[in-house]
Amino acid sequence: MSSPVQDLSVLHQRREQRLMLALALPALLVILLLVVLPVGWLAWQSVYHNGFTLENYRRIWSEDIYWRSFALTFEISLLVTLLALLLGYPIAYAASVAPKRWGIIILALVVLPFWTSVLVRAYAWLALLQRTGVINQLLLQLGVIDEPLALVHNTFGTVVATLHILLPFMVLPLYATMQQIPRDLMQAGASLGAGPMLTFWRIFLPLSLPGVLAGCTLVFVLTLGFYITPELLGGGRTIMISMLVSRNVELYDQWGAASAVGVVLLVAVGAIFFAVSRFIPLDRVLGQK
Amino acid sequence: MARIGARPSTQRGRSLDQGGESVDIKAASKSYGAVRALDDVTLNVAPREFVSLLGPSGSGKTTLLGILGGFVQPSSGSIHFGGRDVTFLPPHKRDIGVVFQNYALFPHMTVGENVAFPLRARRIAKADWAARVRAALAMVGLSGYEARGIAQLSGGQRQRVALARAMIFEPRLILMDEPLSALDKQLREAMQIELRELHKRIGATIIYVTHDQREALTMSDRVAILKDGRLVQIDRPERLHDYPADSFVASFIGEASLLPVRRVDASSVALGSAVLKSARAIPNGEALMLAVHSEKLLIADGVADAALNRLTGKVTDIVYQGESLRVFLQLADGTCLSLRQPSHYQASRLLPPVGGELTVTLHPEDTIVVPKAQEKA
Ligand SMILES: Nc1ncnc2c1ncn2[C@@H]1O[C@H](COP(=O)(O)OP(=O)(O)O)[C@@H](O)[C@H]1O
Ligand SMILES: [Mg+2]
Question: Within the 197-216 window of chain A, which residues sit less than 8 Å (CB to CB) from chain B?
Fold first, then answer.
């Protein structure tokens, strides 16, 4: 049945596949070296200390501080993601529908903070938000408040600063997706009788969902593991998971305990994304061709 | 695939014939910075008329269609539908069907949802959707395709869905921007005939953009020729072909050789040393061109008819093109022209081999002299 021509094309295809594999090999090696090995080592450490033990996990299970910290971390991550979406969507929308030059200016403004380090930005927020900070001083002088507001060293400060730092991770994927939406779909919607609201809800918004999903995933996951900002602006009261990990290592030299926290976080995130993918028809959101 | 026009009209559940809207474009211009995309175009389209906008790429066709659709604001001038001034009416209030060049189907909706979109936009009761969608899809020969995704359709099918979507709300005016340009030749020609038949049945006014002169001639009641944003000529297809306004139209419509000629008197011109008689009025002016359509040159059969113009030259090439032969001829003074012969034995018997001498005749009625079109500075 198979002709020589077919054989050749199959052969060619196989060779191409092998070539692709070879090209991907360096990247695969890097991932293996930098991701799989350390994570594997962590996982191993969390259950092995002078013999196999589940002590680290038992402690996470039983001790209150871990529970509260996990709950707080997920709460903050969700809040930051939601706020980033609410703030980022209009920005990305404006950048994508504005004339080219304005779009670039808007994007530049969003990305500009990337040029300073996270540490600097965290201290900048501290300067703005603390009891003697710019905002409190201003409000006091204007007579709006009688006492300085507690804007920092709490969850509020953490959320504000984290939101600021992670906003580009929401805006950029959103913008990239919105940019791909053909303009004449909106024109078609209008020509078929749909006003601006209906065109947005029925056409633009659904087509921008892949970007929403990408942006939310990025911001959510990044917030889960955020460290410097909550450390500086949480004031020791808002203890996120990353801080527990760091404390375990630095204060108590408990690599096993720190590893166990990391593993639980990893599993929890995996479980969340699995659950989400069951409820959201991902292939419908992502596979619109 | 079912033909759009194949169903006899008695079988249709309801008549989609809504009649057509008259369209008046009054002195419309559009500038993009220094570029004058549309330059003082005035055009009146009668109800139920099929008018094509024909012109090379960049001549302002899409801009004019955009102004009609409300997507582009004219810099000056006004647009009227059925006598109403709609110049500042937003697109969604214009009630016109638009078929876009790349269909602009909504990729996240099924065929049925796409076609029902205008019903949703018009707040028509959901209970009525199914029947109307079914009727619209039947109209374009896509019965039963409601649940298909857009990605699963061929180019021709997408084209039909776009049509059904633009027709379901029974607009009295439909705009189409090169709707067939993405289809292969066979399908394109079949769709041209279908669109013609569809137009007769629904009776809407259609304004159709194309850069394909054959398509324009095939489908339209009248064709408007655009060049550099200006309306050069609007006329019935046969008039455009035989009475072009200038050398640009003559070169764009049909297959013509354009040769510079001098005016001799009101009924003759000089082509090199030869004087040709014309039964038409020769325009005044210095720069004149003779438009010789390749099908209007006949091989002289030896019978000398003094009334005919005769041209003698050397055959430089004979190109076989299936149903016809294209013969390239070089006159004594070096000017080149071509004629077309049906590729049957009788005709090819009269042809000398390449290099041989050939005399052809051109009837004075077919001797078309036009002013030379101005080149854009
Ligand atoms: N949005 C725009 N901005 C600037 N120039 C434009 C724009 N749209 C069209 N033009 C210019 O206007 C002229 C006519 O364009 P268009 O109407 O698209 O022509 P066509 O559809 O006949 O190819 C072209 O020179 C084009 O470059
Ligand atoms: Mg165009």
Answer: 198-199, 202-203, 206-207
In sequence order, which ranges of B107-252 are alpha helices (DSSP H)? 111-121, 129-139, 155-167, 185-202, 213-219, 237-242, 247-252
Pocket lining: B62 vs ligand 1, CB cutoff 6 Å: yes
Are residues B280 and B368 in contact, defined by beta-carbon separation less than 8 angstroms?
Answer: yes
Q: Would the pLDDT of A206 be above 90?
A: yes
B174-190 per-position pLDDT tens digit: 999 998 888 888 888 88
Structure tokens at B361: 């005749």
What is residue B226's predicted lDDT score, i.e. its pLDDT?
Answer: 95
Protein residues within 5 Å, CB atom, of ion ligand 2: B 62
The response to whether residue B114 sits with its C-beta less than 6 Å from ligand 1 reads: no
- Note the pLDDT tens digit of each residue in B332-346: 888 899 999 888 888
| pTM, full prediction | 0.79
Domains belonging to chain B, first-starting first, are 23-240 (3.40.50.300), 243-371 (2.40.50.140)
- According to DSSP, the β-strands at B23-32 and B35-45 are antiparallel
Chain-centroid distance, C-alpha B21: 20
A187 touches chain B (CB under 8 A): yes
Helix (H) or strand (E) holding B52: strand B50-54
Strand pairing category for B84-85 and B97-99: unpaired
Question: Which CATH architecture is the domain A68-286 placed in?
Answer: Orthogonal Bundle (1.10)
B118: closest chain A residue by CA: A192
Contact A198, A127 (CB under 8 A): no
pLDDT in tens, A208-253: 998 998 899 889 988 998 888 888 887 777 778 888 888 888 777 7
Cα-Cα-Cα-Cα torsion B137, B143, B147, B149, nearest 10 degrees, comes to -70
| CB B289, CB B369: distance < 8 Å | yes
Q: How far is B184 from chain A (nearest CA, A)?
A: 22
Which residues, including other chains, have CB under 8 Å from residue B139's CB and lie 6 or more apart? B4, B16, B164, B167, B198
ipTM of the complex model: 0.78
